[in-house]
Amino acid sequence: MTYPDNPTTTLQQHLLPADATLRTALAHLNAVEPKLCIMVDHDGTTMRTCSDGDIRRGLLGGATLESPLVDLPYRAPVLAGADTSDEDLLALMSDKQVSTIVLTDGHQRPVELKNITDLQDRILLSPPHIGTTEVDYVRQTFDSNWIAPAGLNIEAFESRLAEISTRNHAIAVSSGTAGLHLALRALNLPEGAAIYISDKTFVASLQPVLYERMQPVLIDAEPLNWNMSPEALEQRLARDAARGRLPGAIMLVHLYGQPAQIGRILPLAERYGIPIIEDAAESLGAVYDNRPSGAHGLISVYSFNLNKILTTSGGGAVVTDDPDLAGRVRYLATQGRDPCEHYQHSEVAYNYRMSNILAGVGLSQIEALPDRVARRHAIYARYRSALGEMPGIGFQEEAPAACGNRWLTVITLDPNHVGLHPYQLMRALKQRGIETRPSWKPLHMQPLCDGMEFEPHSDRDVVSASVFLRGLCLPSGSNLSKAQQDRIILSIRNTLMRADA
Asked: What is the pTM assigned to this prediction?
């Protein structure tokens, strides 16, 4: 086999002789990126390309792993000259619905592989959206020499957080996870207390419960918007009340920025006298019954992580109307220093306060929050308009009386109508430079939660697992351009139509 004069080392790994077997091709595909092999003859001329899809279709058609590549049904390779412009390559990729093209010399010998990610910027799931005023607030912290967890920025940030959450108190902390930990500690619950937790959530909701050696009880999602199921909660509360085992608290998560059915859950908690901790990490800017998300529980927590709708690069906040709880949270977040002149500490506490620098970033971000929420709503609306009529595609719905912030737009793929698993779509989009993510794997399916108690939505339905197996989070950043969203939509439509062809 004669190779081109100057093939790259990477390209050589993609080349296979005409007598290579499917087994050999699979081994090469497993080792290379992008996932494409190029079959060449003894002169090095391109004969065809081969993807894992070609091999899968061949095996389904009766081929074996020892069959030669030449036995696969022929599919003309997509080739272009080595001097083809990037603009023309992108047009060819769109026309042929491929993400990788083989560039050849004048004798059709491969000299380079071009992937769409080489030609277009990568689209991230939810990147930070930084404006022009953040640096001004940060500069003030250096000008005043207040860069510690104290100063005018953090005081102003907490005041604004209390205002927009309609709470009496806000305490800015180092992360949303730290906020949840402080909320649990502030309630003074005993070790071993049961804590009901939304099953469909990120593991950060669970970890503080384990820090405190409490007992999680995982409550399934409901079909409408995938938050805590009121049906599962009601049946679990009734059963545990009869056994004298009521929980110490309910940790209610507002998934992907969509408020749970608080109007049904809050009366249940009040009936049994159980406090609610709102994990509003993802839902700042959302509204339920004309009140902000985070305004309904006894104590609530926000996250300002890098990918959130409001970011301080890392950080969180605890909000509450209870002055005693607020004081307890502040005490625990600042190493638990006793009120005396010298440094005295009587119990375990933490270094959980936010810095004055990050609070300055947060102050600027708060100013833009309404615009960021509106932008994510517009992104969701475009996805829904463009994809909602495709058979088998569903969306996370809003609860009655709720208006979420649409932090992430999440779709589901119905296997009865769509020929791809969400992971297959995710990988196809990745090849096109588009980042997507699976929906959160439910806690009851996590190895960490093996043996924990789980309450399903009903005897027949485990909703959180179903959503996990069908769900995919789409790029939803508030700085996503119309052209980028068009590219995402077209890629999804083309990938699904090819799978169903």
From this structure: 0.81
